[in-house]
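Annotators were shown the component list below and the corresponding predicted structure, then asked to write short factual statements about the assembly.
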Amino acid sequence: MVRLTLGLLALAAIVCDSTVSAILPNPNRRIRRQASNCSTPVDPAIKAPKPNPWLPFSRNETATLLEWLHAPAQGLNLTVYANFTPWDNRVGVTELLIPNKTDVLNYLEGGPAPVRYARVELYFGATENPYTEDYIVGPIPVSEATTINPLNFIYNKGNGKSPVYAADYQLLIQWAESIGTQISDIMLDILGTDLNTSRIIASDPKQEDGRTILWAQYGLYPTSEYDSGSILPQGLFLKTDITGRKPEEWKLLNIFYDNILYDGVDEFRKAWETPGFNKLTKQVDGNWTHTGRSSTGESIPLDERAPPISIQPEGQRFSVDKDENYVKWMDFEFYTGFSRDLGVTLYNIKYKGKRIIYELGLQEAIAHYAGNDPMQSRTAYLDSYYGFGPYVFELLPGYDCPTYSTFLKTSYSEAGYSFTNKDSICLFEQDAGYPLQRHTSRDFITVTKNTVFTLRFVSTVGNYDYNFDYNFYLDGSIEVKVRASGYIQAAFYANNEDYGYKIHDAISGSMHDHVLNFKADIDVLGVKNTFEKVAIVSDTVDYVWSPIPRNTMRLERSFVENEDDGKINWPTNSAAMYVVVNTDEPNIYGEYPGYRILPGSGSPIHLTIQNSSNLLNSAEFGTHHLYVTKQKDTEPRSAAAANSMDLGDPLVNFGNFFDSESLVQEDIVVWFNLGMHHVPHTGDLPNTVFTTGQSSVFLSPHNYLLGDPSRFTSQQVEVRFTPGVDNSAVVKDAPSTPKCLVVDMSPMFPDFSTYQGGEQTRKFPYTDEVDPNASDP
Amino acid sequence: MVRLTLGLLALAAIVCDSTVSAILPNPNRRIRRQASNCSTPVDPAIKAPKPNPWLPFSRNETATLLEWLHAPAQGLNLTVYANFTPWDNRVGVTELLIPNKTDVLNYLEGGPAPVRYARVELYFGATENPYTEDYIVGPIPVSEATTINPLNFIYNKGNGKSPVYAADYQLLIQWAESIGTQISDIMLDILGTDLNTSRIIASDPKQEDGRTILWAQYGLYPTSEYDSGSILPQGLFLKTDITGRKPEEWKLLNIFYDNILYDGVDEFRKAWETPGFNKLTKQVDGNWTHTGRSSTGESIPLDERAPPISIQPEGQRFSVDKDENYVKWMDFEFYTGFSRDLGVTLYNIKYKGKRIIYELGLQEAIAHYAGNDPMQSRTAYLDSYYGFGPYVFELLPGYDCPTYSTFLKTSYSEAGYSFTNKDSICLFEQDAGYPLQRHTSRDFITVTKNTVFTLRFVSTVGNYDYNFDYNFYLDGSIEVKVRASGYIQAAFYANNEDYGYKIHDAISGSMHDHVLNFKADIDVLGVKNTFEKVAIVSDTVDYVWSPIPRNTMRLERSFVENEDDGKINWPTNSAAMYVVVNTDEPNIYGEYPGYRILPGSGSPIHLTIQNSSNLLNSAEFGTHHLYVTKQKDTEPRSAAAANSMDLGDPLVNFGNFFDSESLVQEDIVVWFNLGMHHVPHTGDLPNTVFTTGQSSVFLSPHNYLLGDPSRFTSQQVEVRFTPGVDNSAVVKDAPSTPKCLVVDMSPMFPDFSTYQGGEQTRKFPYTDEVDPNASDP
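Structure shown to annotators:
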């Protein structure tokens, strides 16, 4: 609910004109050497084998597109953001429309680059029923050939139109606040606050019997500078009918307090004036909401000493083409894209020169709450509506990622502005903290280092900080991991015992499910693949050598033949393996090479609630743990940001992907969920910690190569010795010691005074501080 | 099967007399500073608050115990190991009998130290039916008051006696090999090897209808110096009857080849001579079994550069009393014990001054195989029979653990010898690789470092290397994690399609389950606790504020009332939380403080096979994911090493722990399983890698404190800034930068020529190189 203020169309918080801040290189972020014989190895340069077809729009592409859209010739009657009212038409998101897989494969195999098109979201406000609609505009950069047409083919609703029920959001909040003036004496008595010290928290409006219903709740303003609003709800709720666009027709329907529904102000006042009226405990803000170091003076033994830290003694062991968003680490390489809705997506991931994954990335994130009160009960976020991209903020080196990381910036464009967050993706290697392989015998030991390469970004969508990690391992595995920290969304405690723990004087830790859907378009030795299930079953079996039948186990191999069987749960007791295999390319032993998908950490979940009254037809990707469908250019994503605006009739209903198509040696796509049930307890105050708030899935080679590929690494050692005999050991294969053995740690303790947060640039009318021909966004 | 040669009574591999090698301090394992103002912080010293009641026997305690046992006065007629034959009596394991919890609690609360007793395992060989029996001997150190009695009270079989069916193991192997002389021409033809190039692999003998049946299989001798025997099985099997102790009465019953059972040598020879006899593919050893760096010349880009490495800039931030095996890190402290059967156990784990876990440690490890052939089908290891303690080998600094770790040695005593592995436990801190907490808003960021403290040891039981981690977190969580690397046990490929993948010319990756049982005796604010289940359920609910019922979810709280309900599986879709709570001590908000138990990584499993024909009554701890029972001094462990010797009638049948006792506000114990299904594929050659071969469980505070305890750490930072404005950031709470910022990395690249492996010392008759009064083992 707090997230609405950050929503798609509620951009009031944006500073409307700003200067572009220079992005200064930060030489401190690299290890310096002291001695003269200690030269820093040069970070290796690389050029992408081909231009990145998923590269977000350049400054020039965006600026010329916006100019073209606003030109009278297009007849769109758009108003620039600075002059915009909710009754105008306006441009929303403008970004690259992800090219079709068929076109990109052709390009990767030597064909022409796919024509670049824009996805343009337009808001139409000059109507009683405002709506947004998506358009496809191209070719980009604009030329005489450029046209604009409704974008329909990627939405199985049939069109890209979505109603906007909160078009007059600013007016709405003012109107809702005015209700409070009628009950300010009651508020002061039962909440301890008035309209100056409480605020209106509005949920997303929903359609009920043709009316637009909005529930609102009072919440404390934080008394500190901390971002703690989401854990300071109060126990008073308002039900309003905000149908239409005339505030004079909007109505307060009910007041809700202590599980009693009152028919308006008069009935509520009468009850309050009646002796014996039950007044609930009031919540008060305080130190308990502050994320800073606790000021109570309690200290932890030896905690003031600097803890262990990771260093990188010989420079980067990976290379990045920053112009093309292309990354190569060891035997892996990939491109990245970035979108306003979903943040970073990885494309064309190759391993040892062959594509294993065409596309890997977030699709949507549900945070579904429940409660006895209407705010918690009616809250179910689909976070791509707010967008992950805008909140991929600058990272803190040494805390969020190692100081020696390669940091990249991210940008997106909305409402005529470009927004840039510098240093908001980090790429780094780190020791896993345990070896990759080891074996000891009485006279022998061999151990291999486990260096993991990570692409990380964090998106703080309102109260929650989602950390996304894509981890690459030397055995060919890829792990996708999500963690959640930040503030919980708390409930007012009253009557919420069945929905959470009481975690402070008048606060309940509102139970909720996080379900984050990902797409993994795996291609094993080509696009034609099959989804194999290898079940591990208990059985009683007769053997020719056994006098009696034996209780044992065996494998049961089968294929998921078509989409009717494509909705899958992780099996009880993990008693099955799921593998994307290529049955046309058996290995020399006759087994099918494949990539297996399996849970990593934190037992990823699907949504608890069946047929959610909140999400209606927009959570079909949350009913199971994973899904397999046939790849189609018309089904590129399991959801759409605008689904949130019409949950019963969303742009993309993932359930409709399942139409009995064959999955045997077809181009198949796996969709899997990460996430966790979260029933916050006192330890979630002030913030949830990542420790138990994480889940991951592995994509791991399975009979894919003929042996463990980590045998090729130089970072392993073998020692042979005679037990109990001193100095008898012979060391084999040990990697060479770095030439420079002196490290200056100063760069690992950076000065954060340059931390800057997001930058924005007006792209229409164009802000001339920036060269429109620069290739940088 | 290969593990039998390392078994409880088959100590032939031990060098029978050896000198004690000096344990040299290794000053290289500490970070040195260069500049004169760079003084190494002193590693903090600590003295355990009380002597460790679980401390393993000292040299003196062991030596005087052995002398006492062998004295004629005791009438045990024991033979010293050097002169031992299977027809003699002999001492086996001698170690501390873990004191009763009731006695230790009394001691910890100010009472006298528990009297120390020995568990003494004796082998009685001068009989047609050899057996072992456990005795309790004490007080220790021996005195006039010392007595010896059968040890019965911890075994719910009623006594500590176990039959020894493989007493004449050496003779048996010789006898089985002699069978090969009758078929050496056939072997050469169908295996490509003879008795010089193949060996007999014998499984554990089992009782069938009153007879002792032993199945044996031929296997290649490794042609290299690598420990690859377990992946070189061949397709020829022998069934023998080895009942009794007279080799002349032992019989070859059958020969098994290509799924055909032959009645002895003659029938097999006749078949072989018949035209059309099907000869299976032969397996040949080669580079594919070698764990060293692959010699094929394939290299990985940039892999020769040294990868990132963890350093410890300001010395240890924890302290260890090495005399008392007592460890203190931040707000955690605990004692350790060490046993031959199970390796390291943690005791009396306190957090912020209060005990949260009385005992935490491994109980038993199953590795259960299956297959169409009698060797794989009949193999189910209970690894404590071989013992984890003996194989807790020396670790490799910089590979197994950071070089700056504190390394401890381990010792155990068996057959009159003490065995010591130096540097075989490591204690270290490391950055988790991701923050513990973070939150960003438009003008603010706060992040907390996530430093984790780990106690690690590795036990290589035959082919498998089990890595055990006990991880401690700043939020109060403890993670128990097991990983498996090393060589798999492969099957011969023929007819094993339903039991594994074909992973080389004639080898199948034999499917198996790893199930490792742990005990967690959790005490939340005292010993009287209750096991709470908080289920997360989908439901349709009527609310007073909603016109229609709503599809939502809610919590369902209940207690596991008694042991009848004490066998629990992790719920489908993780839809329940399990918490050990103290209902007598609700917090100020009325919630029960507790420690929650939940899966961490790798989806821990229970055994697939129901009523295993191999394990019979000895795997009752493997039927579910976790168990809750009432704590009893007579039920200290869920298994016994000797269970393996009589699986149908084991010393400890865990199933009998469940006798309807109340679990409501009683002293309760949680037993949980880690492990994984393992269906090896080509990537398991030559060794399994840890990446997907790991599982963990978290024990995590749950409403235990009133907030997140990590708020007290100094290792966090807060930055406030004005978005887009340069140099506006204000940094708060940043930890102080280390005084010394220059690090010499030389110690991180240690010289392994001092690697030594295990040491042994004869304790009876006493080897006089060592002072028997030294307190060290």
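Statements collected:
1. Chain A touches chain B through 232 residues (CB under 8 Å).
2. The longest strand of chain A covers residues 354-369.
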